[in-house]
Design goal:
The complex is a heterodimer of chains A (about 450) and B (about 260).
Chain A lengths: L2 E11 L5 E11 L3 E5 L6 H9 L6 E6 L2 E2 L10 E4 L11 H11 L4 H14 L15 H13 L5 E5 L7 H18 L2 E6 L2 H7 L2 E6 L2 E6 L1 H6 L4 H6 L4 E9 L2 E4 L2 E4 L9 E6 L5 E3 L6 E10 L4 E7 L2 E7 L8 E5 L6 E4 L4 E8 L5 E3 L2 E3 L3 H4 L7 E7 L4 E3 L7 E11 L2 E8 L4 E6 L8 E5 L6 E4 L2
Parallel strand pairs in A: 3-8, 3-9, 6-7, 7-8
Antiparallel strand pairs in A: 1-2, 1-4, 4-5, 9-10, 11-12, 11-14, 12-13, 14-20, 15-19, 16-17, 16-19, 17-18, 21-22, 21-24, 22-23, 24-30, 25-29, 26-27, 26-29, 27-28
Chain B lengths: L5 H25 L15 H8 L1 H33 L3 H16 L2 H15 L8 H25 L3 H8 L4 H30 L2 H6 L7 H8 L5 H33 L2
The chains are: A alpha+beta (about 450), B mainly alpha (about 260).
Amino acid sequence: MENILELKHITKSYEDGINVIEDLNLTVKKGELITLLGPSGCGKTTLLRMIGGFDLPNSGEILLHGEDIGQLPPEKRPINTVFQKYALFPFLNIYDNIAFGLKQRKVDKNLIRQKVKHALSVVDLEGFEKRNVDSLSGGQQQRVAVARAIVNEPEILLLDEPLSALDHKMRLEMQAEIRNMHDNLGMTFIYVTHDQEEAMNLSDRIVVMANGVIQQEGAPEEIYDRPANIFVADFIGVSNIFTGDVTDKKRARFAGKIFKTDSDLPVGTRIEAMIRPENVEITGAGEGAIDAVVTSDIYKGSHHEITAEFGKYEVTVYGKSRVETGSTIGIDFPREYIHLMRHDMDMNVFDGVINQDGSADFTYFTLAPDAEFMRDKAPGSKVQVVFESKDADLSDDPEAGFVTGNIDAIMYIGDHYTYIVRGDNDEDYYADDDWLWNMGDRVSIVVPQDKFRYRELI
Amino acid sequence: MKKKRVLPVVWLIIVYTFLYLPIAVLAFYSFTDASMIGQAGHFSVKNFRTLFTTPELLNMIFGTIVLALVVGVLSTVLGTFGAIGAFYSKKRNRNLIEAMNQVPVVNADVVTGFSVCILLVVVLGINKDTYIPLVAGQMALCTPFVYLQVIPALSQMDHRIYEAALDLYCTPGQAVFKVVLRQLAPAIGSGFFTAVTLSMDDYFVTTYTKPAVFDTISTYTVNATKGAQTEIKTALWALSALIFFIAVAVVIAANVRSRRVENP
């Protein structure tokens, strides 16, 4: 299929100098329904706004049919948008709302009438011409917003979380309708959402974003079955994730055992193993690879969501029948369902909560974010802290750093060493250091205050 | 049997008597040929005839209306764009503007009028006959009220409609005029009416800044009621009654209209 839109080396930063999007490349094919998926603040909306022309990239090209439109204002782009919360004009009736763009382009009156009528029939709102915006339900307003955009026959339709204001049932209905409309119109749709289920239901292709970087792009099945990294695995669907390493050809150690895998990752690679709850097998006690104690069983209608513990690990399994809480079951991870991901050791990411004293509690340590960040943050708000491994150093003075642990792994990377430090609660930290330490050394991790990056989680 | 609650009704009667008895007396006497309130007289429309035939009175009324409209339009433009500008400014700047906007609202009119006079006439040396001090002075009085009417409408507005207009082929200018201002129109309209009313009501700013030969209803009435020229004085009763009736008519019309909008 022909490429309709190409984004090349797009970088966008705001006044404070923080990059929202960094060197992003993406190709959209003509006629596909592509979804930009990610948590709030991941840059997906900014990306959509740059395609629509509401924000301009600091550098990079946006090519439509090979022509750079990156610096054109929105009114000069053959692209229309369905806005979050609709953004209909309350002072115009439905007909005039839909006709707005056509009138603006001085289209012939009779033609406008025909086109509006057709657009209303596409969104299933025939006879609503004279109604006021306020007299329509949320779902109906959403359809008007879609009609107002598609009536202009844009090359690309952008949809910015268009269903976020609707209730769950309505959302499912509208998803099916949007998919139908897309298939009937043959238009290219770029859809933004933070709802992974919605992305799964709708898309030909999903682009998963985090921190302004594309984590993975692919068909929904591909993203679900073979996530590129732990972020994607965790964000899409429910998953069991264990850290470990490749011990032998097609063998990996994780969750305290060695499992056969289909992966070709080289021996010694630090990995995360992911297995979906519906792929975990339940066997009788002693018959599986692992024996685990059931801690809960919640009936979900189509399956039982069973949580079981073994050692310091926990696993979620979707079972067909009820198991007694407190009983022991056997668990197996079938080889073909174990998905190994190379462990990313560039970043340290921890989630935490603002406490009463105006600092932030992360499970294993407490940090004091700067006053600028703490302004208007109430105790109890969720925050995330990120620091890069290259900004973290090691010290043998336990008081020098913000957390202590023992060196668990050492990797020599060209000109420096990357260390995995195992904290006292079994959590891992990654730090780059120029000096050679020994396995098991007791160290503290030192990060300059200004290298901690905080973000509010919503 | 329904128990009638007497006290609230009595209280209301007292309140409305205080509010409306003075103007009712004036309205009553404006339809007589009496030369003083309290004097016996016969029914007559002589006061209204005087009102509509005396050139001096007509000029004064006409001047008041023209001044109010000019000040209304200018204050509305200034206040509206001021509000839009402040609304989209950084929070600190907006708070500063908001605070400064409060000062003329809270300040006594006599102080505003006097200071405008000092600044424009004494310090800057602008001639009162140019009407510039008068218009500028009344604008200083009216603009903050327009601002105060537009700001809430801006905070209620869905700001994406501006981008929606851009998306639908409007230039930024067209988007502001066709969509943003259109959406704010009710607030801008009531801001305009507030400004017109304030301009017509104003006495202090006008006395300090008006040209010597010009009078508004307020300044004229204050001066005319001092002297003994009864013909004009009684005609002013008619003017007062007329203004009152127009005001009542406008209020009723506005109420009927808003009720119709609420229950179509």
